[in-house]
């Protein structure tokens, strides 16, 4: 768990730093910040954008971990170059305002693709907490980076089982009871 969190923190820093080498191949990578020249750096490929609808949170209350709430996921749309789907009603986000000031999400839900395939998603993330960031120029609010994992049946979407992904979790300015998730494949 600690290694994954350390990886995600480092990955988030790299994403937000806007390092140009992220989109270049290993042969183009200059030596910098202690990274050997030619080291292979991951790049990101857009997979989809998801507008997920939610019901109001069910407050569980204060626990040893912090303030726990459960947020029902009631539906939504998934749109990307290789996948189009609808989120199914019945998913949940086990949301936590941690005692150390950070926030965490652990959501589990299903999507049904436009060709009828069911895919399970577990999406986890940790955010720094504190003062929320101001809205982006397009009106979106950013909360945190996430790490979605997929379980797809053999066939057209099996590539989801064999890859690593990173996501962003936020909300549009004009949304109520909805979140915006963007997913990127690490390649």
Which architecture name of the largest domain does CATH use? Beta Barrel
Uncertain residue ranges = 1-27
Shape descriptor:
globular
Proportion of helical residues: under 10%
Spatial extent as radius of gyration: 17 Å
- Along the chain, the helix and strand elements come as HEEEEEEEEEE
Kindly identify the CATH topology of the largest domain. Answer: Porin
Count of distinct strands: 10
Distance between the termini: 22 Å
State the CATH class of the largest domain.
Mainly Beta
On the 0 to 100 scale, the average pLDDT is: 83
The computed structural class is mainly beta
Counting DSSP H or I runs of 4 or more residues, the number of helices is 1
Question: What characterizes the major β-sheet?
Answer: 10 strands, antiparallel
Walk me through what this model shows:
The protein has 2 domains: 1-42, no CATH class; 44-186, Porin, CATH 2.40.160. Helix content is 9%, strand content 50%. It has 1 helix and 10 strands. Strands 1, 2, 3, 4, 5, 6, 7, 8, 9 and 10 form a 10-stranded antiparallel sheet that branches. It is globular, with a radius of gyration of 17 Å. The chain starts with a helix and ends with a strand.
